[in-house]
Design brief:
Blueprint (H helix, E strand, L loop, with lengths): L20 H23 L4 E4 L1 H7 L3 H36 L5 H55 L3 E4 L16 H9 L5
Parallel strand pairs: 1-2
Length: 195
């Protein structure tokens, strides 16, 4: 097989002719189209952002009032439990003093009554933490609604596809710090509201 050199100095094989040129140009065009499609798909990747609701709640002006009301209600609940326990203890001491003078039927009725009161106090103590946490969530709900609205506004304005709350997402392992929109949401919360 002999090769020849055209006038421009390129060395070509005999099987290379101008007939192959459309195929080569078509392949180059397809390669350019594929590269453009890849750049376009890379440009349209969804943006994800994160924020920390704990930081936002700590910076909200109504937080102090909510925490104060929560502390007051928590103290009231604990006082009610202590009073119920003290009352039960006093009733038990009174029953033990009078027990020797009671008939067997009165002793049995008194014991059953004391046991039922004891169960009520135990149930009250067991449920107290759950009730307190539920009340805390109820008091915080208006603040959380404001945060959600501000996050939605920031997400739409900044064109994020998803915004995760670092305070509640256990699946987050590593986050690019530039994706954190906590400060933007804080600015949104501090904007005067229009009514």
């Amino acid at each position: 097989m002999t090769s020849y050199t055209p006038t421009n100095g390129l060395r070509m094989m005999p099987w290379m002719s101008l007939a192959w040129l459309p195929l080569v140009l078509c392949a180059a065009s397809m390669s350019a189209t594929t590269a453009h499609a890849q750049r376009k798909s890379t440009a349209s990747i969804s943006r994800i952002a994160v924020f920390d609701s704990r930081l936002l709640i700590d910076s909200m002006p109504e937080r102090a009032a909510v925490e104060s009301e929560f502390a007051l209600e928590q103290a009231k609940a604990r006082t009610m439990l202590r009073e119920a326990s003290d009352s039960l203890r006093a009733t038990l001491e009174s029953f033990l003093k009078e027990e020797s003078r009671l008939s067997p039927r009165e002793r049995e009725a008194g014991s059953l009554h004391l046991r039922s009161r004891e169960l009520l106090v135990e149930e009250m103590a067991a449920n107290l933490d759950g009730i307190i946490l539920q009340r805390r969530d109820e008091l915080r709900e208006p603040m959380l609604l404001r945060i959600r609205a501000a996050v939605r506004t920031v997400r739409e304005r900044e064109r994020f596809a998803v915004v995760f709350d670092l305070a509640s997402s256990a699946g987050v392992v590593d986050v690019d710090p530039t994706a954190d929109v906590t400060l933007l949401v804080l600015q949104e919360l501090r904007r005067p509201t229009t009514r």
